[in-house]
Specification:
This protein has 362 residues and is α/β, with parallel strands linked by helices. It folds into three domains: 2-172, Rossmann fold (3-Layer(aba) Sandwich); 177-280, 6-phosphogluconate dehydrogenase C-terminal like domain (6-phosphogluconate dehydrogenase C-terminal fold); 294-361, Alpha-Beta Plaits (2-Layer Sandwich), CATH 3.30.70.260. The chain is 47% helix and 18% strand. The chain has 14 helices and twelve strands. The protein has helices at residues 11-20, 35-43, 54-58, 70-81, 99-107, 152-162, 174-205, 208-212, 215-221, 228-237, 239-261, 265-280, 306-316, 344-354, and strands spanning 2-7, 26-31, 49-51, 63-66, 90-93, 114-120, 141-145, 168-171, 294-300, 323-330, 333-341, 359-361. An eight-stranded mixed beta sheet has the order 3-2-1-4-5-6-7-8, sandwiched between helices. Strand 4, helix 4 (70-81) and strand 5 (90-93) form a beta-alpha-beta unit. The protein starts with a strand and ends with a strand. The structure holds nicotinamide-adenine-dinucleotide and prephenic acid. Nicotinamide-adenine-dinucleotide (NAD) is lined by residues 8-13, 32-33, 37, 67-70, 72, 94-96, 119-120, 123-124, 127-128, 227, 230, 234.
Length: 362
Amino acid sequence: MTKIAIFGAGLIGGSLALCFKGKPGFTVTGHSPNPKSVEKLLKRNVVDTATTSMEEAAEGADYIFLCVPVSLLEEYLTSLAKLPLKQGCIITDVGSTKASIAQCAASLELKGVQFIGGHPMAGSERSGVEAASSHLFENAFYVLSPDPLTPQEDVDRLADLIKLTKAQIIQVDAELHDDIVGAISHLPHIIAVALVNQVRGYNEMNPLYQNLAAGGFRDVTRIASGDPKIWRDILINNRENLLKLLVDWNAEVARFIDLLQQSDGEGIAEQFRKASEFRSGLPERRKGMITSLYDIYVDIPDHPGVIGQIATSLGNKKINLSNIQVIESREDVPGVLRLSFRNQEDVDRAAEELKKQYTVHA
Ligand SMILES: NC(=O)c1ccc[n+]([C@@H]2O[C@H](COP(=O)([O-])OP(=O)(O)OC[C@H]3O[C@@H](n4cnc5c(N)ncnc54)[C@H](O)[C@@H]3O)[C@@H](O)[C@H]2O)c1
Ligand SMILES: O=C(O)C(=O)C[C@]1(C(=O)O)C=C[C@@H](O)C=C1
């Protein structure tokens, strides 16, 4: 039996546990210092066994995943390094920053045990094991940041295990990782939170702001609902990169101030054109929660029962849906439904069927 120990089975740890649990030859153990959390993990069937004892969880483990908040990673790794771990055990983490934990690992004496930093580039604004899903990592990138001295066979061994999540594995140096995710993940979270708080201030004077906040505001601010403690830790840990990125952000804001002061319409349009061109080049199909590569989008009127009608008409034609998601839903205006299927044939059949009644974007 290959034993996988997960420390901190919340959104990410719980999702990993669900990817591994039940696979032949694997047993998954969850750890939490809190007996109630241990009980919850067992009750929700996320792990095979669970314990409040670090020693018990780590004993005989072939792989250990540290899935606790970033500020606790070094403490956990240091404590584990003092335990009699199984020879050949690989310890990895899922923290949103990689440089500090890599430095910590390099400073420890890990005899017969390897540490390989990791970071799945998938997640959600939700937290806790309640939000965990075995589909979370499908088609997402999963970064591994091994120390250059780590034997490649150990990296390959961990990568082989992680492939069970259906993520795409990529190796990135820890410092470079922090630089890049600062720009594409941490800075956007800061901007989303600052924007929501700016509007929250106006809304205190006039609640109409809240009522009129529509798709645009919701699209750019979903991530402002991220867990405050998780994000406190990430931002503090990556503060040096973020301080530089915020200087650049100020320059972007200043550019718009200037364009508006000059009433430079062509300059503003050029900013939108450049942004749109770059954004449309993003790998759209590699998304986290939605797993299928075969999606169609359907414009739907926002009235009760419409989703049921769509599901029924596909069911009547024996077309299997693998996922369904309301992307946008606003009162009185059409929303967008993302329907996911398992193969192109189902996509084509579903599009043909639904086009009879709805606007479909395949
Ligand atoms: N949220 C995301 O989108 C995302 C994506 C990729 C990586 N990460 C990283 O994954 C890690 C976990 O984040 P998450 O989103 O799963 O958060 P979460 O809150 O859902 O899970 C955190 C887990 O750590 C445990 N924990 C919290 N405080 C603890 C403490 N003081 N002692 C022991 N256990 C404690 C919680 O009980 C929970 O099981 C973080 O390092 C985060 O940076 C998050
Ligand atoms: O989709 C989200 O809600 C996320 O915040 C996921 C997200 C991101 O910023 O892309 C957040 C933190 C991670 O470390 C990796 C992914």
